[in-house]
């Protein structure tokens, strides 16, 4: 937690009035004392007020602006439904089509429409703009179960296993997450267990160097062996977090999915309480395919959290509604770009507001 303050400098102590020597030499000094001349007392000078300190901007305001920009393609398709002047069945039909086009899925779309009808009736809304605000509330409530923080510190080290298909932004997300953890004061060790993809180890090594954290890697080594060595090293060195980068694969590649299960078992041998988190990185542009990945990887690995990347410019941002309705795995982080600050913790209300802004 950060606090913004400015210390006030203490006011200087008042100077004692100067004492003048008697005038007229020793004779004057021996003369009987006369009534002292009145001494002008200087008026008290008020201590200067400290310069006003501007209140810090809301820490997530910049992020919210980027999120709104990233979800503009999704939100514009939904927002156009509310440009009319009437609340009728045509509005609900158009909204249903817009939600389906945003890849919200049939189940989540029907849930939102039913919930919205109830809210409109209870609020006695008569303006489409009011219906839009009620829809934002409905989406926020639907997404609320996905909002959960990633907890570090209950175990030392906290072993986080990260999976995902090639191209989802898995290794880059690990690098950004490493930076976030390091900025919070956590000591991190990376395990380069993606031994299948060319240059995967090198890419992770760049992030390790950039974030000045340790990395365990083996050229052409067995992924499970790398993980075992990394977890053992993390325990021996007293690291707070061990982040395990696994090879990207499609859930239909059964032999590679079995390799992931093997890695999880080996991590558990190195630390009987681990892995403590199993994260899946998914590309937000893939829409319903992202939901299929969540289901497949969850069945294989029992996921504890998601990182959803590349939401900037997507027209399929409604997929989070589908995930919340059909496979509510917590969403720890969402990303809207390549920069470090473009990965941030997920907030259901922020997402709903950005989606309909």
From TrEMBL:
<dbReference type="GO" id="GO:0005886">
    <property type="term" value="C:plasma membrane"/>
</dbReference>
<feature type="binding site">
    <location>
        <begin position="164"/>
        <end position="171"/>
    </location>
    <ligand>
        <name>GTP</name>
    </ligand>
</feature>
<keyword id="KW-0963">Cytoplasm</keyword>
<dbReference type="InterPro" id="IPR003593">
    <property type="entry name" value="AAA+_ATPase"/>
</dbReference>
<dbReference type="Pfam" id="PF00448">
    <property type="entry name" value="SRP54"/>
</dbReference>
<comment type="subunit">
    <text>Part of the signal recognition particle protein translocation system, which is composed of SRP and FtsY. SRP is a ribonucleoprotein composed of Ffh and a 4.5S RNA molecule.</text>
</comment>
<keyword id="KW-0675">Receptor</keyword>
<keyword id="KW-0342">GTP-binding</keyword>
<comment type="similarity">
    <text>Belongs to the GTP-binding SRP family. FtsY subfamily.</text>
</comment>
<keyword id="KW-0472">Membrane</keyword>
<dbReference type="Pfam" id="PF02881">
    <property type="entry name" value="SRP54_N"/>
</dbReference>
<dbReference type="InterPro" id="IPR013822">
    <property type="entry name" value="Signal_recog_particl_SRP54_hlx"/>
</dbReference>
<dbReference type="GO" id="GO:0005525">
    <property type="term" value="F:GTP binding"/>
</dbReference>
<dbReference type="InterPro" id="IPR027417">
    <property type="entry name" value="P-loop_NTPase"/>
</dbReference>
<feature type="compositionally biased region" description="Low complexity">
    <location>
        <begin position="17"/>
        <end position="32"/>
    </location>
</feature>
<feature type="region of interest" description="Disordered">
    <location>
        <begin position="1"/>
        <end position="38"/>
    </location>
</feature>
<feature type="binding site">
    <location>
        <begin position="309"/>
        <end position="312"/>
    </location>
    <ligand>
        <name>GTP</name>
    </ligand>
</feature>
<feature type="domain" description="SRP54-type proteins GTP-binding">
    <location>
        <begin position="330"/>
        <end position="343"/>
    </location>
</feature>
<dbReference type="GO" id="GO:0005047">
    <property type="term" value="F:signal recognition particle binding"/>
</dbReference>
<dbReference type="GO" id="GO:0003924">
    <property type="term" value="F:GTPase activity"/>
</dbReference>
<keyword id="KW-0547">Nucleotide-binding</keyword>
<dbReference type="InterPro" id="IPR004390">
    <property type="entry name" value="SR_rcpt_FtsY"/>
</dbReference>
<protein>
    <recommendedName>
        <fullName>Signal recognition particle receptor FtsY</fullName>
        <ecNumber>3.6.5.4</ecNumber>
    </recommendedName>
</protein>
<dbReference type="InterPro" id="IPR000897">
    <property type="entry name" value="SRP54_GTPase_dom"/>
</dbReference>
<dbReference type="GO" id="GO:0005737">
    <property type="term" value="C:cytoplasm"/>
</dbReference>
<comment type="function">
    <text>Involved in targeting and insertion of nascent membrane proteins into the cytoplasmic membrane. Acts as a receptor for the complex formed by the signal recognition particle (SRP) and the ribosome-nascent chain (RNC). Interaction with SRP-RNC leads to the transfer of the RNC complex to the Sec translocase for insertion into the membrane, the hydrolysis of GTP by both Ffh and FtsY, and the dissociation of the SRP-FtsY complex into the individual components.</text>
</comment>
<dbReference type="GO" id="GO:0006614">
    <property type="term" value="P:SRP-dependent cotranslational protein targeting to membrane"/>
</dbReference>
<keyword id="KW-0378">Hydrolase</keyword>
<dbReference type="InterPro" id="IPR042101">
    <property type="entry name" value="SRP54_N_sf"/>
</dbReference>
<feature type="binding site">
    <location>
        <begin position="245"/>
        <end position="249"/>
    </location>
    <ligand>
        <name>GTP</name>
    </ligand>
</feature>
<keyword id="KW-1003">Cell membrane</keyword>
